Amino acid sequence: MGLAVSLMPYAWTKVFHVQMGYADYADALVQYGEMSPMGLLWRFMAFSPTVQLLAGLAELIAVILLLFRRTAWLGALIAVLDMSIVFLLNLTFDVPVKQLSGAMAVAGIILLVPNVPRVVRFLLGRNTGPAVSGLIWRNRVFVRITRWASPILAVLLVVGGGLASGASFGWGRLTGSEEVSGVYTAAAGGTPVKIDGTEHTTDDITQIAFGQINSGNGNRLSIRYADGDFQDGLYTVDGTSITAELFPIRKGAQTLIRDSSGTLEFDYEKKGDDSFSLRIDGSELTIESDEERRFLFDRGFRWAPEAPVNR
């Protein structure tokens, strides 16, 4: 049960697309060489919600099977396969939980060991023999109690965990898209305004991306400056006002948890189908939709065979 309980949070967070999230416009300005190995893996998984869902379901199936005595061996087998892949990804993409995923894979192997001879005989087409008993005590009263208590507890754990996770994570629904969500090139005008926590002004902004996914504290935002500096943050929209909370300029090995370096407050106005005006004090940014930076998000799915677009 310990392995199942440890695996369940990872399963549900993938099922509801929380662990890796979704592909977001705010990532459009992140260059390949700027990503950490973990960031690359997370964006790969986030781009395909289907892959993330299937990974979560594979872990969830292992959890369910592990919680029932008769199917625990099969759950252990699936858990070993799942966690071996996760362990390999964690190793090769430098994800910090290498030891935990490795320990979970080993735990699955330990649970599977007593059933290995039966599995081998099954694969060879031979009689598998009697099932391996999972009983830890053969007391008659204990057996009667656990016969019903264990399945009920298993159902409560899985269903309760799913309901709690779904309610907490909004059932994986995509929310937060704003009118201004998109990827843009920027042209500055008026009086430059200093951006807190940086050496930049609004005149230095050449690209800006407003994410379409609400993270709970707001949507993600990213800015590219003329000298190549990259800055990200969160933004919220209230009417025609955009409030952006910015994190420090991205440099080196920054962690997920960062303090704010400053805020920007824009008033925005739609200028055309693909353009907006952002005003802050005496400065104005005219932003135009950048189709090239949105190519990944706008490409869509094609079933018919055609020339590969591998760019």
Summarize the structure.
With 311 residues, the chain is an alpha+beta fold. The protein has helices at 2-15, 37-47, 49-66, 72-92, 98-112, 116-123, 140-168, 295-298, and strands spanning 182-190, 205-214, 219-225, 230-238, 241-246, 262-272, 275-280, 283-289. The chain has two domains: 2-172; 182-298, Lipocalin, CATH 2.40.128.
List keywords for this structure.
311 residues, alpha+beta, Lipocalin, 2 domains, 8 helices, 39% helix, elongated
Could you outline the blueprint of secondary structure elements for this entry?
Elements: H1 2-15, H2 37-47, H3 49-66, H4 72-92, H5 98-112, H6 116-123, H7 140-168, E1 182-190, E2 205-214, E3 219-225, E4 230-238, E5 241-246, E6 262-272, E7 275-280, E8 283-289, H8 295-298
Helix pairs in contact: 1-3, 1-7, 3-4, 4-5
Textual characterization of the structure:
This protein is α+β, with helices and mostly antiparallel strands and 311 residues long. The protein folds into 2 domains: 2-172; 182-298, Lipocalin (Beta Barrel), CATH 2.40.128.280. The protein has 8 helices and 8 strands, in the order H-H-H-H-H-H-H-E-E-E-E-E-E-E-E-H. It has helices at residues 2-15, 37-47, 49-66, 72-92, 98-112, 116-123, 140-168, 295-298; strands spanning 182-190, 205-214, 219-225, 230-238, 241-246, 262-272, 275-280, 283-289. An 8-stranded antiparallel barrel has the order 1-2-3-4-5-6-7-8. A hairpin with a 2-residue loop joins strand 4 (230-238) and strand 5 (241-246). Helix 4 runs antiparallel to helix 5 (98-112). The model has no long low-confidence stretch (mean pLDDT 88).
